Amino acid sequence: MKNRRYVISSAAALAGAAMLARRSHAGAPAPLSAEERAMHALNRLGYGPSPADAAAIAEHGAARWLDRFLAGQFEPRRLPQPAALTQRLAGLEVLALSQAELFGRYREAVKAAREARREKVQGMAPEADALNAVRDKVRPLVAQAATARIARGLQSPAQLEEVLTEFWFNHFNVFVGKGPVGVLVADYEQRAIRPHVLGRFRDMLGATARHPAMLLYLDNAQSVVAGFEPPRRGRRPEAKARSPRGLNENYARELMELHTLGVDGGYTQRDVTELARMLTGWGLDTRKALFGGRGDLFQFDPRRHDAGSKTWLGETVRGSGQAEGEHALDVLAAHPATARHLAFKFAQAFVADDPPASLVQKLADAFRASGGDLREFTRTLVGADEFWSREAYQAKFKTPWQYLLSSLRALDLPLNDPQPLLAALAQAGQPLYGAQTPDGYKTVAAAWRNPEALTQRVQLATTLGQRSGVSVDQLSTTLGASVSEPTRRTLAAEPAGQQVALLLASPDFMKR
After folding, report:
1. Global pTM?
2. What Å distances lie between residue 141 and 94, 96, 135, 437, CA to CA?
3. How far is it, in rounded angstroms, from Cα 29 to Cα 33?
4. Which of 2, 182, 192, 414 is 20 to 30 A from 169 via CA?
């Protein structure tokens, strides 16, 4: 505790030194040096430098290393994966199970919960028994999903793929705590997000729309034509009360407001309702889980679909079953408002909380010209002068997830037990897969830069620094040009045993 108080007070001094450094560089900004560009790439297009990165930069030179790094990041399948990462991922059952099998695990959990209620374990309320029964079945699969994400972020050489997966998962957020979503979240990331981060936006949009995690999270699996009555054959007496009763607009609203057009995208409440009608019948075939089946769960049920004509975004849409929803996704993916919305959000996440209008326009133009090709979209970002500007350098404040990953990479710490790390994320307010609302986690500093959050980071810095055994000289070498001279001078005057934690708690390291 004494060490943590010391680090907190000394971190404040480092913040003052950083502020003076910024003032002393007022005036015309100098272009980034080759070393600064290399660190900028590692921090924005990955989760920060590792000792191996620093060694490679020193061996090849910063400019040559950066050219190789950027070329490789856009071809992630060509980058050899570390054997340790491959083995860890191969041992995670959740990545191998089909959607039907995963949903079957959830059904088993619900069944166990019912049995717990009946048994009424002495000294515990039935509700608590049921909750524990579900958690015992679901928690291991959620933990495996989190282990896969953190292992890839820490060890994968395809760092751009990892930060893009984080961005697009957050864009198409689902909440692990809503019913069966927890057992499906790994499959959602593995199949609906990750394969498309350098592919076509339309493909990702369709993959998320049809995935059971999204269908359940935003309730589209419950959305049916008004007056729909499911077949009575084989139904339990209580099934009628749980059956879908009508239109649910949750997904249609978020599809336009968050996933595509944006809140100012020019649509009306009627457009939301009409889109929801177009998407009725998009649901799940959960019988596969009942009978021990395999495969995907998405099913279009024409009996649940509203086959009437709709007027949506000024267009008359005739009844055509599933094709209506696919047409809607086509229109939304190609809409100019979608290009603007995605361009702003992408520039905000990767360049600045208040991104340059010129960059947003470049990204929007690239999105439209390429037909929503996310590889070209990302190339446009990386090729833009605004991305490499002095103003953009260390202008972003790390989220708790980015801070944790960059700390582990900089200290070269092995991923032995992920659970304490995931607990630290939850304590910092960013539990993995834990954003409850559809807009996901914020990427701006205002969401994360507060006294309580900074204190938590200092505590984590102290813990990790003690675990690592790395000297401040080694850490400074790894971080290279991202550590300012005022910070280096301030650290040199501090006790040796506190220097690593202080560097991790410094403003320089909290920025990216």
Report:
1. 0.92
2. 6, 11, 10, 22
3. 12
4. 414
Tens of pLDDT, residue by residue over 79-114, are: 999 999 999 999 999 999 999 999 999 998 888 777
Instruction: Find the domain containing 468 and state its range.
Output: 2-73+397-503
pLDDT in the model for residue 290: 80
Nearest one of 241, 114, 198, 191 to 377, comparing CA atoms: 198
Least confident of 3-12, 345-354, 361-370, 430-439: 3-12
Neighbouring CB atoms inside 10 A of 59's CB total 9
Query: Does any domain span residue 63?
Result: yes
> Residue 310: which H helix or E strand, with range?
strand 310-312
Contact between 297 and 284 under an 8 Å Cβ cutoff? The reply is yes
Instruction: Assess if residue 168 is contained within a domain.
Output: no
Q: Is residue 90 domain-resident?
A: no
Residue 342 inside a domain? The answer is: yes
| Reduced 3-state DSSP string for 296-309 | CCEEECHHHCCCCC
pLDDT tens digits along 115-125: 777 776 545 55
Domain count for the chain, please give it.
2
Asked if 425 and 451 sit in the same domain, the reply is yes
Residues 466 and 402 in one domain: yes
**H helices of 25-125, where?**
34-44, 51-60, 62-73, 83-90, 99-119
356 and 449 belong to one structural domain: no
Mean pLDDT of 224-248: 65
Instruction: Give tens-digit pLDDT for 149-162.
Output: 999 999 999 999 99
Q: Which amino acid is at 348?
A: Q
Return the residue matching tokens 């994966």: 81
What average pLDDT score do residues 46-61 get? 98
Are residues 494 and 401 located together in one domain of the fold? yes
Between CA 478 and CA 134 the distance in angstroms is 44
CB atoms within 10 A of CB 295: 11
